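Chain A, query sequence.
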Amino acid sequence: MLFLLLFGITAASNAQSTYPIEDTVTAVAPHMPALTRYTGSSACWHGLTYNYTFTSRDGILAWALAYPWEADGYKASIGRYIAATNVSTLSSGEADLYHDLRAAHMMVVDR
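Chain A, predicted structure.
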């Protein structure tokens, strides 16, 4: 599975997301691009748990430059989420999302 969206597409009926943190991401960073995990063997951006394409990293950096207020809101919100969350208590889907959000957070902080 190469593509993993950071947050689900919200239906026109404003249905709630599968995981509450997705709603926070959608609210503070509506223009944030999705990350793509990398499964090959050549150069890639290394997160703490998964690897991501450089295209994903470049997209996050471009978004942070184009929408600095969103990037700052994301950095603050997800920073609090990371600090308050014990990943070992999350379901596998929530843990995957946690790792992707944390990787994007690392990209934004490192910009």
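The chain is about 50% helix and 5% strand. The first strand starts at residue 45 and ends at 46.
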